[in-house]
Amino acid sequence: MNILFIGDIVGKPGRLAVQKVLPKLKKLKKIDLVIANVENLAHGLGITQKTWVEMKNAGVDVGTSGDHVFNKTDVNPILNDPDSRLIRPANAFEDMPGNGYLNLVIKKKRVLVINLLGQVFITKEAKSPFDAADLLLSNNSGDIIFVDMHAEATSEKVAIGWHLDGRATAVVGSHTHVPTSDTRILPGGTAYVSDAGMCGLRDGIIGVDRAVIMPRFLTGEKQPHEIAEHGPAVFNSVLIEINSKNKASKIIRLDKEFEV
């Protein structure tokens, strides 16, 4: 089985990148399941029905999220719909709609997708992702277990990778929008990468128009969140190949740059 994970999709440029790349990539690489972190779909902050439908129509099968998942109230009915295949972090927002995991069947294999939120440098309150993962794995089973660890600190992501080595098929980091080059198969057979990266404007600041971000560093002035609609864009993703024993046999980066 081939699983593609797409890094945080940021605003319209990110959505355009997915729409341009994904349909051909699915055919070329014979991808069976596409998972994407979609918490930044709608102008870089949150998710709306329109933006989520766009990504599903482009070929995204499952959406994971993070600390910005509830920035738009439009997301509530989507998360309440069990057929939407959109999940929120399992260890946060417990009084809010949605679930932190998803069970599905792909090619007669039971696939469990888990979404976790880090605690280090994250402003949203979250319980231990380590405890949450242990609890979910004790109450759910799957032939293939995929974990999106949405976290700021690389050390926390590396730690969860080791914690789940041999128990999860893949642990992929998200959130920073910066792709890392540490793809590897851990000794227990778990595919790992610290951050998949993003889909969005290359020449912004992690996907946001740099003209509104630079003053924050230079003068302390905060300006409204803006994302330019056109320019050079990146599509960051990782492809995980899973063998007949439900172990990851390969994890590679699939990154592209082009104009949107």
Automatic annotation (TrEMBL):
Top-rank lineage group of the source organism: Bacteria
GO MF, one example: 2',3'-cyclic-nucleotide 3'-phosphodiesterase activity
Transmembrane domains' residue ranges: none
Binding-site list for Fe cation 2: E39, D67, H150, H175
Gene3D superfamilies: 3.60.21.10
InterPro entries hit by this protein: Metallo-depent_PP-like, YmdB-like
Binding site for Fe cation 1: D8, E39, N40, H177
Keywords: Metal-binding
Active site, per annotation: H68
Record protein name field: TIGR00282 family metallophosphoesterase
Organism for this UniProt entry: Candidatus Kerfeldbacteria bacterium CG08_land_8_20_14_0_20_43_14
